[in-house]
Amino acid sequence: MLVLAGTFSFAAAAAHLACIVGGPGWYRAMGAGERMALAAARGQWRPTIVTLLISAILVTWGLYALSGAGVLAELPLQRWILPVITAVYLLRGLFFMPLRAHFPGNSAAFWYWSSGICAAIGVVHLVGLWQAWG
């Protein structure tokens, strides 16, 4: 399950990177909000930097999941970081309502879809941790 969790994190990173390549329409389609889409349309760096940062975090999380599954060598602080990653996914998925106030430009569809995806990835992580560590 941790291999699947890592794969999901890599897929999420790829989806974020697709927004950079696809441009403003992709930011809109993914629900990032009109502000991000307009900034991308104006050629501003902020959407690209934010998206690259999120993608880098997701790739790192994918690597930790693969490491926890034994596919990769053990990474630093793995026994602490994997439960934190799991908690972040679960918390983001289940308690998105308070976050909505801080990102008013994001669509309702974005919040429901991304929160459902995060909750699902969190559950996969949790099951994977239970399988790996008992």
Mean pLDDT over the full residue set: 94
* Number of DSSP E strands: 0
- N- to C-terminal separation? 13 Å
Assembly level: single chain
How many H/I helical runs?
Answer: 7
Overall geometry comes to globular
The helix-strand sequence is HHHHHHH
Largest sheet: none
Rg result? 16 Å
Q: Roughly how much helix do the residues carry, as a percent range?
A: over 70%
How would you summarize this macromolecular structure in one to three sentences?
The protein has 134 residues and is mostly helical.
What features would you describe in this structure?
The chain is mainly alpha-helical and 134 residues long. It is 78% helix and 0% strand. The chain has helices at 2-22, 24-29, 34-41, 46-68, 78-94, 97-100, 108-133. Helix 1 runs antiparallel to helix 4 (46-68). It is globular, with a radius of gyration of 16 Å. The model has no long low-confidence stretch (mean pLDDT 94).
List the topology elements.
Blueprint: H1 2-22, H2 24-29, H3 34-41, H4 46-68, H5 78-94, H6 97-100, H7 108-133
Helix pairs in contact: 1-4, 1-7, 4-5, 5-7
Salient structural properties:
single chain, 7 helices, 134 residues
